[in-house]
Amino acid sequence: MYNYYFFLIILGVLSVIIALNKQNILKDISIENDIFLTSLFVAIIFGLFKLIKKENIIPKIKSEDTKLRLCGQIIFVSVALYLGSLIIKNENIIIFKSMSKALSLIILFIFSVCFLKLKINLYMVIGVLFVLMGAYLLDQR
Q: Which domain holds residue 23?
């Protein structure tokens, strides 16, 4: 059963738990080891699910576009994991999570207006301004 708001709340809670846990993990091991071990065990868990379901572990990808997008995604996720871990290791998690969410929202808004031809209205502009003000206020230490 799919429930958008329920899953959104779960993801929000998990995001905080993961960030706080990662901050403690990075006190003992390197960023590279954290990413490697996490990725390895995620791959093992999902590989076991695929084996139980009797599916191929590595699917055949026919579309060249999908192959290129997957390669790009692997690179982007790797960079994002490393940079996110580097920031979590050195900065205040609350500020980082808040600023990154605000920045993502603003970039998505600008991208949507410029490339996806999103029609903006006054409420959207006010919302983006509030996000900007909130990010600014959070960054005032």
A: 1-90
